[in-house]
Amino acid sequence: MTRKKRRMYVLGLALLGLGTATALTMAAFEDNIVFFYSPSDLAAKPPGDRSVRIGGLVEEGSVEKAAEGLTVRFRVTDLAQSVPVTYTGIVPDLFREGQGVVAEGKLGPDGVFVARELLARHDENYMPPEVADALKRSGEFRPEPPGRSVYETPQPKS
Description:
Elements: H1 3-32, E1 35-37, H2 39-44, E2 52-58, E3 64-65, E4 71-77, E5 82-88, E6 100-107, E7 113-120, H3 129-138
Parallel strand pairs: 1-2, 5-7
Antiparallel strand pairs: 2-4, 2-6, 3-4, 4-5, 6-7
């Protein structure tokens, strides 16, 4: 085998290895990527069977707890659209009507979002950046208190 042929074989094997590594990496990322949707985004472009996060405010008067105590039904709104959500599990302590929430799960064929994870915002001054952006796009954003950004993580009170 000549040097040129050997070099071509090594180069071909290196490219094959690089392509395989790239394909495996992309497959791993695809399993872990979760897109964020506001209720308006979800109404305009449903995600299909893909797992997504939705965020907004828990609509006033929409929280219903089931008799067994673990299932909660509520609506998430960006003040332009709202999406019905059902969640089975322990609800975060800060979860309540009028507060920011992010739910991760899938949109069912009936239009009800089935959440497998529920996150409530940390305190009255913090709002997840995705939720703030969605509210700004809808034109219903309530400005933050003076001197404090909604993107700023609250500092512990001493």
